[in-house]
Design goal:
- It contains twelve helices and 14 strands.
- With 386 residues, the protein is α+β, with helices and mostly antiparallel strands.
- Strands 1, 7, 8, 9, 10, 11 and 12 form a seven-stranded antiparallel sheet that branches. Strands 2-3-4 form a three-stranded antiparallel sheet, with helices on one face. It has a two-stranded antiparallel ribbon with strand order 5-6.
- The chain is globular.
- Keywords: Coiled coil.
Length: 386
């Protein structure tokens, strides 16, 4: 992904905790003394409204307008008024007057309260929280990962866990005021698993809801996913694709799903390297290859441009039937676009499609357990949100 302008690693909800980073996370982050979450949030830029004016080109006078209000960072605005060479531009955005400012303390202070009260194995979540905050566009766009040491999935043969949490963020530029979704990071390979719950988004318009209740509901969903993720992974490990019997390579598998070539090549390289055989690869390993490519080599920004590929990657794990159907449709379209080069080519295309359909048929006996588990998880989500 695009490198942020700055990163801040944190551990513990506030200065009263002596939380340490887990060993697997500390090995990947070069930081001696992480800040507390509360301190990090209060260090983030804020936004306030101020009057906007336009210059009349005929009179050369500035005319105020109530239709728009500039969003500025107050500390930077003060520096501009008193310092001849200020460090940063205070202006974030000039929205219409229907824009509602939501500052980071409005969103994350209620989370601090929840983390002090909610527990895991009798320990407050605030004592085991850690993660990273990333700033873009002068601090007007922020993304963060918040994880909980001990809320995890451990796979046989691995010393480092898959640790659960949420990824959240906001911006002052008229897109999302704040978003949050379930998230996990695989300590074994540093791969990031996003969109493990539905993304909750609040826009920059209308009334702001009760964030405390919002966080309670979201954290309840994350705990539910942690309970089921191991089962999804175990089931996906039992579904193998034999690429020696399929009409496409591992790289083409990701390309047919919609990955751009540079990501498809990275994903295939990781999947082949981690499979027992480069020709027979299970769906969990194929999913891990996709998340490896997205975590370490995606060239776009965090947000919508990344989300589309995250959905594709997650379907490999949570919806293998849908993944095979998508590949079959893409392969059919590829054949149709290639034109009819004669009966031999047509026969080869039919045989290729038949080999994909056999994979789909073999999946049917396992599809029901995926669907039942997903339906049960969705029902528990609804109970948690009600």
């Amino acid at each position: 992904m695009k490198d942020p302008e700055s990163r801040t690693v944190f551990a513990g909800v506030d200065g009263r905790t002596d939380t340490e980073l887990p060993d697997w996370y500390r090995r990947k982050k070069t930081v001696d003394e992480p800040k507390s979450f509360a301190e990090t949030i209060r260090d983030l830029p804020q936004a306030v409204e101020t009057t906007v004016a336009y210059r009349n080109p005929y009179s050369d006078e500035w005319v105020e307008t109530e239709r728009f209000n500039a969003l500025v960072e107050p500390t930077r605005a003060r520096d501009h008024a008193t310092d001849g060479e200020p460090d940063a531009d205070p202006l974030f955005h000039v929205p219409t007057d229907s824009y509602a400012i939501i500052n980071p303390v409005d969103v994350y202070r209620p989370l601090e309260e929840v983390l002090r009260e909610e527990t895991i194995d009798g320990t407050p979540l605030g004592d085991v929280m850690f993660g990273e905050i990333r700033r873009y566009r002068g601090g007007g766009e922020v993304h963060m990962d918040v994880m909980f040491d001990g809320l995890e999935v451990r796979l046989p043969g691995r010393s480092d866990p898959i640790t659960m949490g949420v990824t959240s963020g906001y911006d002052f530029f008229g897109e999302h005021a704040v978003y949050v979704e379930g998230f996990a990071q695989d300590g074994y390979c540093s791969n990031t698993m996003r969109s493990l719950t539905d993304k909750e988004v609040i826009k920059h318009v209308g009334d702001v809801r009760n964030f405390r209740t919002w966080w309670e509901e979201i954290l309840a969903q994350v705990e539910l996913v942690a309970d089921d993720l191991f089962e999804f992974i175990r089931d996906a490990q039992d579904i193998d694709l034999d690429f020696s019997e399929l009409p496409f390579t591992v790289t083409e598998f990701y390309s047919l799903l919609g990955f751009p070539d540079y990501l498809a090549e990275r994903a295939a390289g990781d999947a082949e390297a981690n499979a027992a055989s480069p020709f027979e690869i299970d769906m969990w390993t194929l999913h891990s290859g996709a998340t490896f490519a997205l975590t370490h080599f995606f060239q776009g920004k965090e947000g919508a441009s990344l989300d589309q590929y995250v959905r594709i990657a997650n379907d490999i794990l949570f919806n293998p039937e849908g993944t095979i159907e998508r590949i079959e449709q893409a392969y059919e379209q590829q054949l149709a676009a290639g034109g009819d080069d004669g009966s031999q080519a047509s026969l080869a295309g039919e045989r290729a499609l038949a080999s994909i359909e056999r994979v789909s048929d073999d999946l049917q006996e396992k599809v029901e357990q995926f669907e039942e588990r997903e339906d049960a998880l969705r029902e528990r989500f609804q109970d948690a949100m009600s």
